[in-house]
Design goal:
By secondary structure, this protein is mainly alpha-helical. The chain is 74% helix and 1% strand.
């Protein structure tokens, strides 16, 4: 890592640490949501590496959220034990479904994701055990010994830790042998198969790893809202996850979803004063980005802003 990159990373970390004391509670809550959405966007970008755009993100997000909520409410289980439990359940359920779906190709996977998301929401809303459309009761605050996460700053830093682990795991995987196989599949499915890459097996591994971290994001959402409601896990939310990746830059698998989540989350929040026009304005902004900045925001930075700065500084 270059000296400039080290300095930039240090400045970013200091800014992230100081941020909760520089913004009001409302903005801090939006930042907490952005952290959760970033983890969802990372899973979407991660699966794109194997040529599988997924519309089932909201379903597994809901699985993680409801596993945490139900285990804490019905069984009195610690929040920290529900985290891996939610992830493991999302992986097991995903394996049962995707072992049938993934071998049948991208279109079947895409359509199955839509069905999974809508069916999961209906299950959460219709089964009394899950609390119906009104959602669950308020869950207990997560604790670490005598410390409770009642302060939104603590929840924010908890999210940063989850996001950091998420990024680290994805980074290690993408630069490993399995990551190179994923890249080969995404670049040319036929060529990867012809050189002996087990496409179904590698795709399955990729999707299930994504399921685990999406479920963790769901558990984190419950820690921040203290309730799980079916309307949080709609098909529309899965579409929004795709927007995070497109706006941030599809070519940037790690930074792109985070930048995109930040932009796509804050634009609607600051348009609440014109609620009836918010979907139109947000959609128009995203379409303009796709048309005029096809590489996303980070693509614009790489292609235009970096060369301009280099020329100015030389």
């Amino acid at each position: 890592m270059s000296k400039g990159a080290i300095v930039g990373t240090a400045v970013l970390l200091l800014a992230l640490i100081a941020l909760p004391w520089l913004v009001n509670p409302y903005v801090l809550q939006v930042l907490i949501l952005t952290i959760a959405y970033s983890m969802l966007g990372l899973a979407f970008a991660f699966t794109l590496r194997v040529g599988l755009p997924r519309f089932d993100i909201a379903a597994w997000w809901g699985v993680g959220a409801y596993v945490t909520a139900m285990m804490m409410l019905k069984g009195g289980v610690s929040f920290w034990l529900t985290l891996p439990a939610g992830g493991i359940i999302a992986v097991i359920l995903g394996w049962l479904i995707f072992k049938i779906v993934i071998p049948r190709g991208m279109m079947v996977f895409l359509l199955a994701g839509m069905v999974i998301t809508m069916a999961t929401q209906q299950i959460f809303a219709s089964v009394p055990f899950f609390g119906g459309w009104g959602g669950t009761d308020v869950i207990p605050l997560p604790t670490v010994g005598p410390i409770t996460f009642a302060d939104k700053r603590a929840v924010y830093f908890l999210g940063l830790i989850f996001l950091g682990v998420n990024l680290l795991v994805y980074r290690v995987l993408l630069t490993s042998r399995i990551g190179r196989a994923w890249t080969a599949i995404g670049s040319s499915l036929g060529l990867a198969s012809s050189v002996g890459v087990d496409v179904v097996r590698y795709r399955m591994a990729n999707v299930l790893i994504g399921n685990f971290f999406v479920a963790v994001a769901g558990s984190y959402l419950v820690a921040s809202t203290l309730v799980a409601i079916p309307t949080m896990f709609t098909f529309t939310n899965s579409i929004s996850v795709m927007m995070y990746v497109v706006v941030g830059g599809i070519g940037h698998s790690l930074a792109g979803p985070i930048v995109g989540a930040l932009i796509v989350t804050f634009i609607p929040e600051y348009l609440r004063m014109a609620k009836e026009y918010e979907p139109i304005i947000t959609s128009a902004a995203i379409i303009l980005i796709i048309i005029f900045v096809p590489g996303g925001i980070l693509g614009l930075v790489k292609m235009r802003i970096k060369p301009w700065l280099a020329k100015r500084l030389s």
